[in-house]
């Protein structure tokens, strides 16, 4: 990767970075020169994604961590710091969805959704923010959803997690902006990935992972005096 690339001096962490939206974001940041650390639930998937990026000439490290577990997150952040240095970009993308009426969802499923989508973003941010504070700069980008603004049948747990992530992002932005750290929220509509099919919808009309990656790229390339706090992303036509 060229040393004069736009992000050649940046170290970027992408959670849920082994597939779909996360891998697209990692690839986009890597092509801009960032050195990447990918977090996935298994070492095999993290390593496979990192190897694929390395084959493209991108510097990528793949490590396993369950973002729901504080110790696992701490070990991951420590390993990245020791191997690459202080992170300057964090993309909290890891997420899951379980869709049942709120009065019928199992507690274990509720916990899995909230702990992954909301608590996981907080845990990783808590570990990485001090690294950015030392540098007096950085970007934390939470990948949320339009489900964080709109309700739908069976979306109780998922919507709760994404509404909560919006609140977390807004408060973090106020907490950290004095240190030169920008915290942004990206709210995509329906995204077509091989891992999250949407029955009855036309995939050609849906957002693609690269569309979300493009927004992240835009956010990290802002001029120093600019701060985009939230982006809603919709397909041109309803799928």
User: Considering the protein shown, what is the CATH homologous superfamily?
Assistant: NAD(P)-binding Rossmann-like Domain
Radius of gyration: 17 Å
- Profile the largest sheet: 7 strands, parallel
Classified by CATH, the class is: Alpha Beta
Low-confidence stretches: none
Task: Give a written overview of the molecule.
The chain is α/β, with parallel strands linked by helices. The protein has a single domain, classed as Rossmann fold (3-Layer(aba) Sandwich), CATH 3.40.50.720. 42% of the residues lie in helices and 16% in strands. The protein contains 6 helices and 7 strands, in the order βαβαβαβαβαβαβ. A 7-stranded parallel beta sheet has the order 3-2-1-4-5-6-7, sandwiched between helices. Helix 4 links the parallel strand 4 and strand 5. It is globular. The N and C termini lie far apart (37 Å).
């Amino acid at each position: 990767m060229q040393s004069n690339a736009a992000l050649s001096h940046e170290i970027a962490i992408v959670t849920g970075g082994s597939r779909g939206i996360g891998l697209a974001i990692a690839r986009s940041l890597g092509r801009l020169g960032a050195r990447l650390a990918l977090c996935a639930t298994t070492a095999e998937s993290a390593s496979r994604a990192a190897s694929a990026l390395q084959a493209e000439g991108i510097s990528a490290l793949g490590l396993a961590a369950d973002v729901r577990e504080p110790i696992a997150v701490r070990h991951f952040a420590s390993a990245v710091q020791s191997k690459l240095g202080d992170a300057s970009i964090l993309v909290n993308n890891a997420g899951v969805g379980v869709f049942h009426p709120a009065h019928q969802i199992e507690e274990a499923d509720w916990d899995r959704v909230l702990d992954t989508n909301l608590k996981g973003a907080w845990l990783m941010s808590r570990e990485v923010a001090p690294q950015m504070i030392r540098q007096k700069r950085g970007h934390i980008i939470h990948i949320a959803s339009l489900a964080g603004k709109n309700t739908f049948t069976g979306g109780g747990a998922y919507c709760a997690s994404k509404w909560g992530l919006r609140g977390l992002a807004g408060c973090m932005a106020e907490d950290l902006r004095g240190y030169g750290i920008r915290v942004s929220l990206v709210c995509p509509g329906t995204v077509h990935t091989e891992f999250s099919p949407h029955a009855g919808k036309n995939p050609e009309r849906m957002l693609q992972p690269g569309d979300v990656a493009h927004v992240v790229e835009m956010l990290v390339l802002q001029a120093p005096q600019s701060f985009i706090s939230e982006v809603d992303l919709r397909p041109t036509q309803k799928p």
